[in-house]
Design a protein that fits this description.
single chain, 18 helices, 18 strands
Length: 575
Amino acid sequence: MNDQAMQPESRRATVEALRAHPNSTVLIVGGGINGIATFRDLALQGVDVTLVERNDYCSGASAASSHMIHGGIRYLENGEFRLVKESVTERNGLIKIAPHYVKPLETTVPIFSTLSGIISAPLRFLTHKQGKPQERGALLIKVGLTLYDAFSRDGGTVPRHKFVGKKKALQALPKLNSGIKYTATYFDASVHDPERLALDVLHDGLAAGPHARAANYVEAVGVEGSSVRLRDTLSGDEFVMTADVVINASGPWTDLTNSALGQPTNLMGGTKGSHIVLDNPALLAATGGREIFFEHKDGRIVLIYPLKGKVMVGTTDLEADPREKAVCTEEEVDYFFELIEHVFPDVPVDRSEIVYRFSGIRPLPGHGDLAPGFVSRDYRIVPSQLGSSTMLSLVGGKWTTFRALAEHLTNDTLALLGRERTVSTLGMPIGGGVGFPKTDGAMKVWLADNSREVGKDRAAQLLERYGMHASAIIEELAESGDTPLASAPTYSVQEIERIVRTESVVHLTDVLQRRTSIAFTGGASSELLVELAGILAKVLSWTEEETRAEVQAAAEILSSEHGVQVKALETGANA
């Protein structure tokens, strides 16, 4: 990890450097996974590239994912064969180049009929009209999974799907609805810490050299000729930056960014997807460690997903306005409880068990009257002129294909610059995936080499969180100590200090929601907010007033956006 590039003062230093040298060959607006991946790819080509993000890195649409890296079996019904092929290729590739975060995921589909959908699904395929919602029956799912195997198997390394009847299905998953007739099981992949994967991609780009610069909490707010006006959202200071190519990778907010830059567009038509995270041991056990993935009776694709000792349930697909904050509503919670009851009728769930809710807007293209479920998940790149500069607006994109999308966008950019690609990212390990143990034997050797100072369990925990960066972290903890947080003992004071020091942390919520999984797993108590704020205050030199404001702001965000209620506690810089 490039520690020097991400020291706490370096964000301020980066912004000052941008003000002092306000020009770049390429300016990327948007620090979600697609903007960050394009930043990395361009940096690896030696291109002078700058990325700005108006909030924290990976805090918008990229932070509201279903934590899946998937081939998109349902895209077959939309006839998007190119996207399915690319998706499964990238899924298989990410398991290899980001093995610290991307893991194979056994996925089971409960099936309640044999023939349902055999007429409506082909009509949807031909017309893209939703028609009467119906759950897919066994015959249709069998056809889909057979096609999916043909796209997905990666030379035979991915197992074929399996169909079993009711008896064997209930033996494997006894809490399933006894009304099922079959289950189908296949493999996709999970990404257990998507925001941390994005940070690894970002750090790879920064490590390429001083020609790659990135700053969070810097917003594109206007245009002056061919220059983009930027605002430091912390200080309010504004300055202009010139670039030969401006890439708008602001996801669902692409039209809003273009409008701010004097290039009004009507490209986007994103839909809202919400999730809840439940602390329900019975439901966790009922999944058998598998993702349960199926189509509900209203035609929506939904999932029940064991993750980090909790169960995530999602997702919805509703029209959304990117100018408004997306939040998970009580109606959506009712919907999630209904689908849990449909699949696991004997497993009670209650609102008191929800430890976290989150919602985001998918960066989908405008779709008119087309039903949200049939809007293409593919991406396209729309060129335009920004004075004497060229602007490329990204429409669409998803987590699974971020590497391929960045390659495409980088190639288009290189063509505009009259340059050739010099480095391929295909098969190139990402961040802490470099040298990650691939076998049980290699894992045992790594743990033996790295557990002397912190113990085997702690070494394994750090390896899961940070990949091969864990070795350097363990060396540092051996010197600094490894004192467990009083309010979240699976993290240590020194570990959090290092995160703040090396990962461009600006706000308390950056640590709670994106640098760690504390909030996601229900650990965001009042005491924890105060404890973390004290650590951040020490590293970032906050005043008592700033520390208190950060605690209050974090509590408000957790309450209003994530349904987590924490009472405000008085705190000071030394809390």
